[in-house]
């Protein structure tokens, strides 16, 4: 019976011989005390996965009383108490995985027939002498809960388990290895050892069929068949002599005293060895020394994996003539940090016997070399030995930090590499060629074309200062990805002067499978390839200052890139253009920066009449182009000289910055009759940019036009417009449709527009936007030439934004209130008189957080009372050089009586989130904020008021009130207060109020001669201020309290908390 996710105990049936219950549900958290299965021989119990062992499935020892026939018991994730455990005379196998066993040692007497005991990741109380009573025990595995926890084995215990055939002790332990001598039947052994456990004399491991003997810092491998991992050992390795003859995996770490492996460790050649790992064995010079044997020995014939690291004295793999079948099956080689190694494979030192065998290295698939500073050659092979060596299976090569290496492959070896797929080279300062001719006799006859590496897909080369060519006269067709970075001497990727025809292959097209090409910091590279790249998708070129063209072919129009998707080019000082604009149907992204000689990104050849092509339908268009980004190309005039705007129906983002010669982004092509060319199949989309979301143009001094012939509904998804520092920009949008032009103003409906910034574009023509979701609006120095501005903006039926130097910015109609706006910045709009033309007083600004006004000379006020009461999220208020402004908030008596919301009985105003206020050079301003009976600026942190000559009071009482008892008001967050050059300022604190500033850090008061508000500090250094009371009440002068008389009035104050001696009086 087999059950999964058991929720209740099954019915008892004496006929069961085997039961397996997997993943027992937590519902059965305690099993029955006793069950009757008299014929049961095999029982598997598995509990649910639990983080805490205390929550494991609980089974009592009495549970097994009626299972006398039980032979095999397997428990997993079980908390098992052996107390009361019955005698099970037939139990042969007990395996516990991830369990908790209580009273383990005391119950062993009830399992005398046990032959297999495996406690894996299982917690027990102790290992005691009781284990000796298991006289039939053949297999013992102890792995404990954690490998770092040392297992204590009583002395002389193991030596008395004379029936043991397999012993596996996985954690650290204190086993005395001399006890193994008593185990005459032992065939398999797993041990984790420290160096001090191995007796110095008179000990040798017995011959074993299977073993996994590792140092204390190695992990145990249950799959290992015959493995030795020795570490931190400086004496003789004679204790392992019986194991070297059949070891399959050998790892030596920090083992001294051995100059080689063969013959020092094994004279027979370790021919069953498949994996060899060496690290920090600083006395070892070679793997094998054959000087005395003259090549007759068979050695390392089955080695598959060779990993060598940090071997200070290693000079080579073989000293002398290579033995028979040496490294014949080698598949993977990794060598790192061997400072003396000069040559790895000395193929020219081969015996005559070797020449008749399977080619050397023919099974090698992976080669990785790292930090070998003296390495001069990887392979030392003569042309006469070409047949002896072959790299026919090599797939991956990685070479890094081999500073003396000049070439990697000789031509004869390169020709054999039919399966090479990936080649990585980095930080090889003296490398000149990947495939080179290191010796005169290596030159191939007639210097003919090498057709090699037919499966190479990935080539990555980085920081090779001397590299001039990847190869000479080499044809590599299969490349898919090329990445070359910081090779400052690289002239060409391939040094091939002309197309070479192979009779058996015909004329070859190079790099026809290339999909990704990335070239960075190659200052001498002049061009990259000959011919088309029909599969290229990604092209990245950075800092290639000598590059003028992508190809050296004379007819650049044939440079066909039909699958190119992404182009990124930066820092190419001499690049004039990329390629023909034709044949780019898949182009999705263009990103070009710092190319000062670039005139056109894509070149368009014209016929003798000056037209792009004779056939209009062949003009360039990029139907999939989504992103266009160009920066710092000071000679760029066009993106493309002839562009179909209707061929850009996928365009989502345009970003152009610092292109001082740019005349027009897209130069619309016309036919011979002067008419714009239209694609009939696109219909009404010819004048629409249906997917454009972001438009950003900055610092383009000659740019005059952006979009021509655009419909009012032509930007249905546009979200952001940024136009900055374009002094010649005349027109952003133009239309030939009469319905899109109102009194010479272009009207655009942009329903998703959220961000609009137009700055320093003084020649721009006014246009009107219907943007109901606007969040950020910045207008600065826009249309300041009066002759270009129509000051009479028409009244529309819907709310709109007027972009230009007009009298109004927002026109509110149709019930729309612009409540989504978060940031508003208006600078140098000298004609603006009203920000919101709010006829119905419906504008609410509950989302406005930042307001900046500068140089709006004709503006008299900012908010109506209705607007001001909605400013619940305003954080920053910055106003400067607004000469005519008198009030920030229109007075109640100035609100139109026709307004439905002009009721003067509204609640007092409050600005609960306003943190920073800066008001500078507003010479007609007489007050800042109305002041009622509730705190108006609870979160104010900074208040700077400077050079406002007519300002009389910062806070103005909303209603005149009689003199009553003094009212205290705290500004708990205000840290910085600055009042400077305010000749008319009388009141900072309204009369009858007492302000307290507990958080004040900086207080500056300068040139305020009329100021009647005095400042002082208390014992806690809280700053206070009050205003003198001079009026009479019932003909009796009001007596000034002492605190007011002693405060500082109309004097300069420069106070900071903790700034030494205070300028402010202490008043308690």
From TrEMBL:
SUPFAM superfamilies documented for this protein: L domain-like, RNI-like
Keywords: Plant defense
Disease resistance protein At4g27190-like leucine-rich repeats domain segment(s): 299-429, 452-550, 621-739, 753-883, 897-1015
Protein name: Disease resistance protein At4g27190-like leucine-rich repeats domain-containing protein
Record-linked InterPro entries: At4g27190-like_LRR (IPR057135), LRR_dom_sf (IPR032675), Plant_NBS-LRR (IPR050905)
Top-level taxon of the source organism: Eukaryota
Pfam family, one: LRR_RPS2
Organism: Gossypium raimondii (Peruvian cotton)
